[in-house]
UniProtKB/TrEMBL annotation:
The chain holds residues 1 to 483 of 737 of the full protein. Residues 247-269 are annotated as: Disordered. GO terms for cellular component: cytosol. It comes from the Bacteria. GO terms for biological process: trehalose biosynthetic process. Belongs to the glycosyltransferase 20 family. This is Trehalose 6-phosphate synthase/phosphatase. Residues 254-264 have a biased composition (Polar residues).
Amino acid sequence: MGKTIIISNRLPIQLQIHNGGITAVPSVGGLATGMKSVHSGGDSLWIGWSGLTDEDIPEELAGDIDEALAKHGSSKVKLTIKEVDGFYYGFSNRTIWPLFHYFLEYSEFELESWEIYKNVNQKFADAIVEKANEDDTIWVHDYQLMLVPQMVKEKLPNISIGFFLHIPFPSFEIFRTLPWREEILKGLLGSDLIGFHTYDYERHFLSSVRRILGLEVSFNDIYLENRIIKVDSFPMGIDYKKFSDAAKEHQQRSPENQSELQQRLNKHKKSTPDAKFLLSIDRLDYSKGIAKRLNAFEYFLKKYPQYKEKVRLIILAVPSRSNVPQYQLLKKEIDELVGRINGEFSTVSWTPIWYFYRSMPFENLIDLYTSCDIAWLTPIRDGMNLVAKEFIATRTDKTGVLILSEMAGSANEMNESLLINPNNFEQIADTIKQAINMPIEEQQERNNVLQKRLARYNVEKWANDFMTSLKNQKEKSHSYVSR
Ligand code: GDG
């Protein structure tokens, strides 16, 4: 049995150069958070980009970098500034990300960044081929690396390759607008197993394969030359125990051992015991619907003025892709909205929105998850949304209400939460009111079911299911060839 090689754009740690030395900081984001627990569990190697470009790395530090990465079971793909610009900020985040999240008007179709995307995918594929044996299993992650499976398959035809897409796969009508739609599909079809978060994304993908490539598809098997490729849905779970244990530990802390943030939250809760805290945590991304959420909050305060001074919205927006113009514009829009709403509604004793634009340590995430009364997550499109699951996992006494957009992949598994359409302000305002007034017993009943489900289908189970399915598929495909 060979090793597992995980490949993603970002490694589980990001390297930075400070005062002439290397420091490693954990990567934030859904993929990194989820796969970290898989990676630390077994014999695996993680290949990805370190976060530093070739131009950032002084020659004398090159060896230290490899050493720092090796400590985390990782190996780097070297990228220049031009490659990061064209591949990551360009094709991945100005073409694929908006298109796959149905923001067609934000999608740019530029030949130059497509060429760089191809070249960088080839670099990742070469790095795999250099490290892999034919009995290894390759697990390629996400939209930045959709050509890698085919590129590896060409060199190592017998190796087992799985691909998982962490974002939605759009409907055929959206996907067909991509000038390089055939190349992307063929790239993915180098895999033996292709996984999505939901059945809908799987269905959209199969429909594109059928209509664009004209391939034979039977249920969720694609027949390509002498291979069968399986397509399936694997809704990603979280490291449930990590979050629930952290919350339990957090609650046992004496006040003097609590974080500064927690102490301040406690103080505010004490001074306004009947006020409710609403929380949202997202990367600052247009797909997460942060600006709409702020507008909806304003609508709520106007529709139900009795809740002025009785609710507080805490928004944690984590900086993301700040080189891409759409993200800069969005940051400006959110800054202005927060300023305007706070300006309009604040009183001497109450500021309706607390806005943090930064990444927080894990401990502070737990402070926020456990201290708020309502988690309010309203993505316009979201592959899964792990924050919704993490919030529920930290509610040790089973209280708390989750308001979740039905456009998030996680909504499929979280029917006991209050599901909303992020564009329907009327419904959102009424749902916030319902959440504020929900009896404790009802909260506990709903969360009890959710917790049981999330604890059972955790990230480990998700990864095991994927790997088992990949192994079975390889055997099935092999017996098909030898018929
Ligand atoms: C992509 C897809 C899909 C957030 N802020 C901080 C922080 N986080 C952690 C959360 C959570 C993760 O980042 C965010 O995960 P999401 O799933 O909500 O969103 P994306 O980053 O967009 O992830 C998404 C996911 O991939 C997995 O497939 O669900 O749909 O877009 O784990 O806890 N962590 C720390 N500080 C923060 O400030 N430490």
